Every structure is written in structure tokens, then in C-alpha cells.
Amino acid sequence: MKILEEKVQAVFNPVFDVVTRKIELENQGEITRHIVRHAPCVSILVFDPQTLTFSLGYEYRSGVNQYRWGNAAGFIDSNEIPLDAAARELEEELGLVSSKDLKKIGVISSSEGFTDEEIFIYYAEGPFDKKPTRFDSDEYVELKELTLEEFRSKIEDGIIRSAPTVASFYWFMINKYEEFYK
């Protein structure tokens, strides 16, 4: 695989650019693809073992023109590493500071066929110190606390659809469930 040419078609700072790529593939010859180059992001699953609740954000999501549930999330600033961005977003959006280190769950791609977006997923476990939220000027996130069964039900009913939120919930079920729900 070799990129022969890449031309920026549109720039939507700081979130994404749209580019056209001419690519030479060994088995297909030359192809043209339109790609969304997307800024990397973080998503944080938040669990409080004292109350056995998950803290999620509930906010307007313009891509689907609906209010949706999801993990605390946001962009990684150019001067940050993903772990620092996760801690910052946790405090900015939910007003929470974990007394424990955040644990990296993994990295997912949202849709590899047309974008290079990567989402670094972290797990934050309480107890938490509560601080004032610090939203960006164009955002407001309402903090919602869900029990395990409420969280699972909202996923199964299609109410929670965010890919990193769903993936991190099932990571919790595989890796943490028995520690807290024996």
C-alpha cells in the first residue's frame, strides 16, 4: 500500500479535515478514497465502588441530532498524552477527580473505512473528589448515575449506543464484575 497523492478538500478545525487520497494497492491497483482525518479522543468509563454506580454524561450530540448517554469524552489537545486528556475531561465534564490512577482499557477505531479517528478508552474508579465542572463554551453535559442493571438495560434497549461506552461496559463485565458483584 502506498499513498500516491493526498489533497485536503475541507478543513474543519480543530475536529477534522476531509481529504482525497490516491492509493496504490498491491491487489487492486490505483484507487481513490475520501477520508476524514479526525483528531484523536478519549472516553472514560466511570465507576464508584462505594455506590455501585456508573457516572455517564447526557448531552446533545449533533451527529445524530439527539440527546444521548455516554462516557465522559473529549479531544486530546496537541500538547497532551491520552492519559492526561482523560483526567482533564473527567474533571471538566463530570467534575470528578479519581483518587486512583486511570486504567487504559484500549484504543478503538470508530469506522476504519472512512476515518482515522482513534478513541483511547480509560477506566476511572472512585472514590472521587467532586469539583466544579468546566465546560467548553458550546457544551453542557448533565451527570447521570446508573446502576449496573440500568446501564445494561439502556444498552440492550438501544438507548445507549456510543461505541466506546458500550465497549467499555462490556470490558467492565469481563474484567471487573466479579470484584464488585460477587
Describe this entry's structure for a reader.
The protein is an alpha+beta fold and 182 residues long. It folds into two domains: 2-37, no CATH class; 39-180, Alpha-Beta Complex (Nucleoside Triphosphate Pyrophosphohydrolase). The chain contains four helices and twelve strands; from the N terminus they run βββββββαβββββααα. It has helices at residues 82-94, 148-156, 163-175, 177-180, and strands at 2-12, 16-25, 29-38, 41-48, 53-61, 66-70, 72-75, 96-98, 103-109, 118-125, 128-130, 142-147. Strands 4, 5, 6, 7, 9, 10 and 12 form a seven-stranded mixed beta sheet that branches. Strand 5 and strand 6 form a beta hairpin. It starts with a strand and ends with a helix. 26% of the residues are buried. The mean pLDDT is 92.
Mean pLDDT, nearest integer?
92
Looking at the structure, the CATH topology of the largest domain is Nucleoside Triphosphate Pyrophosphohydrolase
CATH top level of the largest domain?
Alpha Beta
The helix content is: 10-25%
The separation of the N and C termini measures 50 Å
> Strand-and-helix sequence, N→C?
EEEEEEEHEEEEEHHH
Q: Which regions contain 5 or more consecutive residues with pLDDT less than 50? A: none
The domain count comes to: 2
Per-chain topology:
Layout: E1 2-12, E2 16-25, E3 29-38, E4 41-48, E5 53-61, E6 66-70, E7 72-75, H1 82-94, E8 96-98, E9 103-109, E10 118-125, E11 128-130, E12 142-147, H2 148-156, H3 163-175, H4 177-180
Parallel strand pairs: 4-10
Antiparallel strand pairs: 1-2, 2-3, 4-5, 4-7, 5-6, 5-12, 8-11, 9-10
Question: What's the short version?
Answer:
This protein has 182 residues and is an alpha+beta fold. It contains four helices and twelve strands. It folds into two domains: 2-37, no CATH class; 39-180, Nucleoside Triphosphate Pyrophosphohydrolase, CATH 3.90.79.
